[in-house]
From TrEMBL:
Gene3D superfamilies (UniProt xref): PCu(A)C copper chaperone, Uncharacterised protein YcnI-like PF07987, DUF1775
Species name: Rhizobium puerariae
Signal peptide: 1-23
Keyword Mitochondrion belongs to the record: no
Keyword terms: Signal
The keyword Magnesium appears for this protein: no
Pfam short name (any one): DUF1775
Domain YncI copper-binding span(s) in chain numbering: 24-170
Protein name from the UniProt record: Copper chaperone PCu(A)C
Matching InterPro entries: LpqE-like, Lxx211020-like, PCuAC_sf, UCP037139, YcnI-copper_dom, YcnI-like_sf
Top-level taxonomic group: Bacteria
Length: 328
């Protein structure tokens, strides 16, 4: 049994002909620790014989469970649910089904560029040293298709295949990890989250962003704004010297549809209330980033409020996490 959940994002909105590719689709991070939740990024290096890629499909192998894809501006997101062959433990709860295929659709990735498609998931019940294959397919409108779906038999060199499926090698779990989320950011780890920036009656705390994966064109920004005054205010814009543009966005579920939109008028900060910018909700979006954010770095940004005026803020760059979620 399979179910389909669809997410629609604002932005740019059956393939024929197999095309021989010049470079293989691969993962930016070739290994994942066993029994650990990780973030993986599929690199799509080209289109279909010069044509732009409009859809990317990734089938998830048994043992890569509890998957959550990262939305991409300008692409629709479709998650196909199905039954697992085994039962997996999710913090004490037995789970027998979940996402088995992810599809990014109705996008536009020109052949001259490459991009990454990111998924968070847990490797469970797979021995260290084993390779997990993720058959992937690119569609280019109605005019082209590239399938990376050949899975090498055990003992066979995958380089001998014409269209090998992208693979990840399962590594032994490091003893220095933090539970199921080893290698991902731990919320509250930096003292920067306790820093308070004040402007007028506003207090800004918990400012952070996430390291960007190779090829990732945008980054998010998150913090909490508390309005201690008796008058409403509005965050009307933001700017950063290391990004071509900074936009204010909102993501919200509407039924079974996740919609992301640019907030043209800004984010309201009601009197006596706190507003949190967080992954999956209100957030800043850094566009046209010249240098990818790196863990341990800092991202300067200037916030412009309707009444309080302008204030400079520094976001600490944490390790890349699952869709930007902070882990406690």
């Amino acid at each position: 049994m399979k179910n389909v959940t669809k997410f629609a994002l604002s932005g740019i909105f059956v393939a024929a002909g197999m095309v021989q590719a010049h470079a293989h689709a691969t993962f930016a991070n070739p290994t994942v620790p066993e029994e650990t939740t990780s973030v993986i990024a599929l690199q799509v290096p080209h289109g279909c014989d010069g044509k732009a890629t409009t859809e990317v499909q990734i089938k998830l192998p048994e043992g890569f469970v509890f998957a959550k894809p990262q939305p991409k501006p300008g692409w629709d997101l479709e998650v196909i649910q199905g039954d697992y062959a085994k039962t997996y433990d999710n913090h004490g709860k037995p789970v027998t089904s979940g996402p088995v295929e992810i599809r990014w659709k109705n996008g536009d990735l020109p052949d001259a560029y490459y991009d990454t498609f990111v998924i968070q998931g847990k490797v469970s019940g797979v021995a260290a040293g084993k390779a997990l294959a993720f058959p992937a397919t690119q569609l280019c409108g109605t005019e082209g298709k590239v399938a990376w779906d050949q899975v090498a038999e055990e003992g066979t060199d995958p380089h001998s295949l014409k269209s090998p499926a992208p693979t990840l090698t399962v590594a032994a779990k490091s003893g220095g990890g933090h539970g199921d989320h080893a290698g991902m950011a731990m919320g509250g780890a930096s003292a920067a989250h306790d820093a308070v920036v004040k402007i007028g009656e506003l207090e800004i705390t918990g400012a952070f962003t996430k390291a960007m994966l190779p090829g990732q064109p945008v980054g998010g920004g998150y913090f909490i704004i508390k309005n201690n005054g008796q008058k409403d205010d509005m965050l009307v814009s933001a700017a950063s010297p290391i990004a071509g543009a900074v936009e204010l966005h909102e993501m919200a579920m509407q039924g079974e549809v996740m919609k992301m939109r640019k907030l043209e008028t800004g984010i309201a900060i009601p009197a006596g209330k706190s507003v949190e910018l967080k992954p999956g909700g209100l957030h800043m979006m850094f566009m046209k980033v010249a240098e990818p954010f790196k863990e341990g770095g800092k991202v300067p940004v200037t916030l412009n409020f309707e009444k309080a005026g302008k204030v400079d803020l520094t976001l600490e760059v944490e390790a890349a996490g699952p869709g930007g979620q902070k882990q406690n």
